TrEMBL record:
Family the UniProt entry places it in: Belongs to the aldo/keto reductase family.
Presence of keyword Transmembrane: no
Protein known as: 2,5-diketo-D-gluconic acid reductase
Gene3D superfamilies cross-referenced by the UniProt entry: NADP-dependent oxidoreductase domain
Superkingdom field: Bacteria
UniProt keyword annotations, A-Z: NADP, Oxidoreductase
Taxonomic path: Bacteria, Pseudomonadati, Bacteroidota, Bacteroidia, Bacteroidales
InterPro entries in alphabetical order: AKR, Aldo/ket_reductase_CS, NAD(P)_OxRdtase_dom_sf, NADP_OxRdtase_dom
Ranges for domain NADP-dependent oxidoreductase: 23-255
Length: 287
C-alpha cells in the first residue's frame, strides 16, 4: 500500500476504507472484509454511529494495531473543549484502542476552536497521533490554521473528478495539510460512469472508470476513502497501484471539474441548521 507523510511525520495509507452510511449492524462485517482485502486505513466518525462496529472488527481481525490506521471525527454536538475531550474518550472505548491515528473536527460549526484545543491536548497525552479538520472551506481553514499550535494534518473534503478542490489545495499547501477525499468516486454518480473521457482512459488501461477516478486523486497526492459494502468492489478500488495515468490523461480530466458552490454548500444556512440538529434526529441512542 502506498502511503503519504503527514506534516507531523506520521505515515498514512493513501487509500482507505470509509464507513459513512454503513449500518451499525453490518459495519463489523464490512470492516473485516475490507481488512481481509488488504485495507489498513479505516475512516469512521462519531456521527456515523458505527464506531463500535469498527472497534469490534479491530479486535477480531488479527492484524496488529500498529499496522492499522484509524480515523474518526468529533461531531458538532460534542463541540467545545470539555465535551470534545469526553467524546474522544468515548471514541477510544468504542474503537477498542488506546490511541486514534487521525482525529478530525467533522464540521466547521459550534465551538470548533474549543474542540481543536481538546484534540491538541489528546495529541500531547499520546491518545491521538495526528489531528485535522473536515469540510473546512479555504476561509475558515486559514483562520483556524493561523490560530492553533498544531497545524491541521488533513482537511477532509468532497473531492473527486467533478469537485477537484484546487483552491483549497493551494491554501492548504502552505501548512503542509493534505486533502483527504470523501466521495472520491462521486458517490457512484451516473455521470461519472458515463463520462466519455473517463471511459476512454479506462478502456486504454483495461481498468474501470472508478479505478481511473481514484487513480487521478492518488497521482495528485490526495488521500482517498471510497466506501462500498461489496467485497468485490473493495478489491477493485484497492487495485489501482500497478498502473499510471499519463500527463496528457491527467490534463484531460482536469476540465471535468465543475464545483457546485451552493449545492450542498456549507455556506447554506439551511444546511447549517440541518447539521446542527443532526444528532438529535439521527442518533439511535436518542430513539
Amino acid at each position: 500500500m502506498q502511503s503519504v507523510t503527514l506534516n507531523n511525520g506520521v505515515e498514512m495509507p493513501q487509500l482507505g476504507y470509509g464507513v459513512y452510511l454503513v449500518a451499525p449492524e453490518t459495519c463489523e462485517r464490512c470492516v473485516l472484509d475490507a481488512i481481509g482485502a488488504g485495507y489498513r486505513s479505516i475512516d469512521t466518525a462519531q456521527a456515523y454511529y458505527n464506531e463500535a462496529g469498527v472497534g469490534a472488527a479491530i479486535a477480531k481481525c488479527g492484524i496488529p494495531r500498529s499496522e492499522l490506521f484509524i480515523t474518526t471525527k468529533v461531531w458538532i454536538s460534542n463541540a467545545g473543549e470539555e465535551r470534545a475531550a469526553a467524546s474522544i474518550e468515548e471514541s477510544l472505548r468504542k474503537l477498542h484502542t488506546d490511541y486514534i491515528d487521525l482525529l478530525l473536527i467533522h464540521q466547521p460549526f459550534a465551538d470548533y476552536y474549543g474542540t481543536y484545543r481538546a484534540m491538541e491536548k489528546a495529541v500531547r497525552a499520546g491518545k491521538v497521533r495526528a489531528i485535522g479538520v473536515s469540510n473546512f472551506y479555504p476561509d475558515r481553514f486559514v483562520d483556524l490554521a493561523e490560530n492553533v499550535e498544531i497545524k491541521p494534518a488533513v482537511n477532509q473534503l468532497k473531492t473527486n473528478v467533478f469537485s477537484q478542490q484546487w483552491d483549497s489545495e493551494r491554501e492548504m499547501e502552505q501548512y503542509g495539510t493534505k486533502i483527504m477525499a470523501w466521495a472520491p468516486i462521486a458517490q457512484a454518480d451516473a455521470d461519472l460512469f458515463e463520462n466519455p473521457t473517463l471511459q476512454a482512459i479506462a478502456e486504454s488501461h483495461g481498468r474501470t472508470v472508478a479505478q481511473v477516478a481514484l487513480r487521478y486523486l492518488i497521482q495528485r497526492g490526495i488521500i482517498a476513502i471510497p466506501k462500498t459494502t461489496h467485497i468485490d468492489r473493495m478489491k477493485e478500488n484497492l487495485d489501482i497501484f500497478d498502473f499510471e495515468l499519463s500527463a496528457a490523461e491527467m490534463d484531460s480530466i482536469r476540465p471535468l471539474d465543475r464545483p457546485r458552490e451552493f449545492q450542498g454548500s456549507h455556506r447554506d444556512p439551511e444546511l447549517v441548521r440541518f447539521l446542527l440538529d443532526y444528532d438529535k434526529k439521527f442518533n439511535p441512542a436518542n430513539k
